[in-house]
Amino acid sequence: MKNRITxxxxxxxxxxxxxxxxxxxxxxxxxxxxxxGLGLIGAGSMYPEVLKEHIQKCKKATKFPFGINVPMxxxxxxxIMQIIVDEGVKVVFTSAGNxxxxxxxxxxxxxxxxxxxxxxxxxVKAEQAGVDVVVAEGFEAGGHNGREETTTFTLIPMVKxxxxxxxxxxxxxxxxxxxxxxxxxxxxxxxxxxxxxxxNEASSHINFKNEVVNTEDGDTHxxxxxxxPVRLIKNKFYNDLQNLYQQKPTIExxxxxxxxxxxxxxxxxxxxxxxxxxIGQVAGLIHEIKPAAEIVNEIIAELEEVRGTFxxxxx
Length: 315
Hints:
single chain; alpha/beta; eight-stranded parallel sheet; 15% strand; globular
């Protein structure tokens, strides 16, 4: 499956595992890279020294390329970027910030840069900033999201129409059928997050993994747009938040309700009542916790199976 993305990243399949906070440590990233995709370590939930440890362990666990996802809204960004450079990581996915800030610096160090966007406007700006790849993430995605509420399958062709760099589709993709559909719409590859949360190697708590498996259609919602939009499973914390919205809260009241380490409490520590449980709408298609390699193989096998039916009449 050779195309612009597989050639750029030197990977077998045009499939990237999202660098999700509290889920994407070295075990998951190396497992996906070993299976032929591109694994990403999620730096957003790591102190600099913890990130350094994960990079070093990942280098020992795989001989294949892997990358780091860096949300630029987090502190210690300078130290994080320096560790990435010092450790010789060759791929960085940036998000939640201005791509102009770091793209040229990273590229001068020989690092390939992808940037996550939620709109055509920001895709164009990312290309102008010099990124090598744009990740176009639709409204369906879990975790922190765009305010535009543009769905993946409308966003991809619109972004493809306006940029020349390769486009990776993200949000709402967990199967081979979904991957093929995104690529037919113009994506050069897909980035998959939620499906890999329910993997053996994900660093998240088993309580959270089981909750993802039990999540059905309509069980997630995008909220906290006034701070940073985030898609959550509806639990006690979510319900308390909605009750607060009925009182027309100020930004400060929302920040107070959110508190600190809410995502860690839910996804990493397994508090299903009081934690943030970030997952995409596609969780309704996730029914089992499996090894990451098995997930990759199943996605690619389904893609090839469905692609093979295209010489048959559809109607």
